Amino acid sequence: MPATVWKGYISFGLVSFPVRLFTAARPKGIHFHMLHKKDLSRIKEVFYCADEDKPVSRAEIVKGTKVDKGEYVVVTDEELKKIAPPTASTMDILQFVPTGEVDPLYLESSYYVAPEKDVSKPYLLLMQAMTETRHDALAKITMHNREHIAIIRPAKTGLVLHTMYFADELQEVNAPSVSKSREFSKKEVDLAKTLIGKLAGAFKPEQYHDEYRENVRALLEAKQKGQKVARVPQPKKRAVVDIMEALQRSLQSAKERPDKSERKTPSRRSRKAA
């Protein structure tokens, strides 16, 4: 059984029922250890006291936040539990919003919302009502020492919850300032739309894979066998000088490209053989 990330209640109006959250997605990657270059032995992380100039054990470490130069306020886990808001155990639905209204920029992490087996009726009722009205729920939940605003939406297998960033956590200062005043010819716009139509299709996530992770695996296998590491060819990028010419060439390239729905991602074994 998967590990429970959060356990509590969903409450809307006078209806309340218990649920559990399970992780819905987790990034994959090749994990590298830190090694001593001299003898390839593992390097261990050491916590060091700057004032006493000596290492300390985890048992000697407490949590604290800086309030002034050289001054900290120390807190314990028990104290943090005491001040946890009600959302640590109950998700109160604050409002319902039309499906698709929330900007994906706010979305943070995804979780499956599973009902406790003996009280699935209110869970299914909420899910059906949200599906038929095409509305998602906004709620608050506290976990991992943070209170989150979250959006709950019906999916094929059940309810899914996405924790969200608060408005003041968005880095709007990093957003590009792009002028929209430039005008394009009808032919340029039509060509761009034709290119989009040629590349348009249903989203099939299984046809995409992490080429970098596969290349790292191939690199490690080659080094284990004492083989030479081959450089991955990189396409040459040229600055767009004539946008019409670039669009026409892109469209021609799209026409020559095989249909993605007909292509199959090669298995790891077949890639090795290649």
Please outline the helices and strands.
Layout: E1 6-12, E2 15-23, E3 47-49, E4 54-56, E5 63-68, E6 71-75, H1 77-82, E7 90-98, E8 107-115, H2 120-133, E9 135-143, E10 146-154, E11 159-164, H3 186-199, H4 211-224, H5 243-256, H6 268-273
Parallel strand pairs: 1-7
Antiparallel strand pairs: 1-2, 2-8, 3-4, 5-6, 7-9, 8-11, 9-10, 10-11
What overall geometry do the principal axes of the alpha carbons give? extended
The percentage helix is 10-25%
Give the second-level CATH assignment, the architecture of the largest domain: Beta Barrel
CATH class of the largest domain, anyone?
Answer: Mainly Beta
What count of structural domains? Answer: 2
- Proportion in β-strands: 25-35%
| CATH level 3 topology of the largest domain | Ku70, Chain: A, Domain 2
For the report, how would you describe the main beta sheet? 7 strands, mixed, barrel
Structural class: alpha+beta
**What ranges have pLDDT less than 50 throughout 5 or more consecutive residues?**
261-274
**Average pLDDT over all residues:** 87
Count of DSSP-assigned helices? 6
N-to-C SSE string, H for helix and E for strand: EEEEEEHEEHEEEHHHH
Taking the alpha carbons of the first and last residues, their distance comes to 38 Å
Query: Taking strands numbered 1, 2, ... along the chain, how are they ordered across the largest sheet?
Result: 1-2-8-11-10-9-7
What is the β-strand count? Answer: 11
CA radius of gyration: 26 Å
